[in-house]
Amino acid sequence: MRSLIAVALALLLSGTAASAQPAQKDAKGCQDHPMFTRMPDSWIHHCSEQGFGAHDFVAADGKTKLTVEGHVWMLSYYPQAAAKVKPSQLQIARNFENAITKIGGKVVTSRQGRSILQVTQDGKEIWIDLTSEFTGKHGLTIVEKQAMAQDVVADAAALTAGLKATGHVTVEGIYFDTGKSEIKPESARAIGEIAKVLAGDAALKVHVVGHTDNVGTLESNMKLSQDRAEAVVQALLRTHGIAPARLRSFGAGPYAPVSTNETDAGRAKNRRVELVKQ
Question: Can you say whether residue 122 is alpha, beta or left, with left for phi > 0 and alpha for psi between -120 and 50 degrees?
Fold first, then answer.
């Protein structure tokens, strides 16, 4: 993100020279986001940053929401008390909207007090929620869209407990590229944990079940889920020497969701591999 070139806003300086009143300083640890300079005579009242979070971008109807997950920055700007003329809501909106369109972005929605902007830079999809008040105060919520890096991988003990408790368990930490069935190298640890479960109980047989979200056609999702389940089976056979009679692959496609398919977070939960006791 730091590689993004800062966008210089076409700002209109308003008013005459400020009085001798001392300027407010930015809140400790806060600075402008690399994408934007700031409105003249403004200071950062507060800021925050999350390596992974989510924000709801509200459509023009005020009801429809798009939840975007990824790296989140929040900045709140106040006009300097000494400024004789505060920027209007329209002035703030047009400055940021013009800045984003100049670098190939777009204005998704624009209404009084709120603009939703979107741009793709260096292959990264970036969303901006701009809010403003008649007082000249304004805020930016910037989300660089990305999937969460899965830090937790289910271990053999947790998988075994899940199978004993409910007869099925989701295996965290198995990764595929979008629309593909080749297991990514970082999945090796999770595959190894499945092998430990099977090694710990010689009588255990399992179905390896692939699941998808509902994006795309039913036919493509059914095939994709079957191919992914079979890829896990083959990894267990080749890499860990599990007997073929102990494993069967099955593709459930989008038929057994565990969350809503209306949000990115829900769809991510629905794309999974499960073990089901035979």
Answer: left
Select from 276, 207, 200, 193 the least CA-distant residue to 246: 207
Dihedral sign, Cα of residue 175, residue 177, residue 183, residue 184: negative
pLDDT, mean over the chain: 88
Eight-class DSSP state of 62: S
Full strand arrangement of the beta sheet holding 106-111: 42-58, 65-79, 138-145, 124-132, 114-121, 106-111
Contact by Cβ (8 Å): 55, 68: yes
Residue 103 identity: I
β-bridge partners, 253 = 211
Contact 15, 45 (CB under 8 A): no
State the architecture of 156-277 in CATH terms. 2-Layer Sandwich (3.30)
Look at strands 272-277 and 247-253 and give their pairing: unpaired
DSSP 21-45: SPPPPPPTT----TTB---TTEEEE
Can you tell me the distance from the alpha carbon of 171 to that of 163, in angstroms, rounded to the nearest whole number? 11
**pTM of the entire structure?**
0.55
> In terms of DSSP bridges, do strands 65-79 and 106-111 run parallel, antiparallel, or are they unpaired?
unpaired
SS3 109: strand
Structure confidence by residue, pLDDT tens digits, 196-243: 999 999 999 999 999 999 999 999 999 999 999 999 999 999 999 999
Closest CA relative to residue 208, chosen from 176, 268, 250, 180: 250
Report the candidate in 218, 35, 202, 208 with the shortest Cα–Cα distance to residue 127: 35
- Domain layout of the chain by residue ranges: 42-145, 156-277
Contact 107, 34 (CB under 8 A): no
CA distance 125 to 70: 10
Contact 96, 36 (CB under 8 A): yes
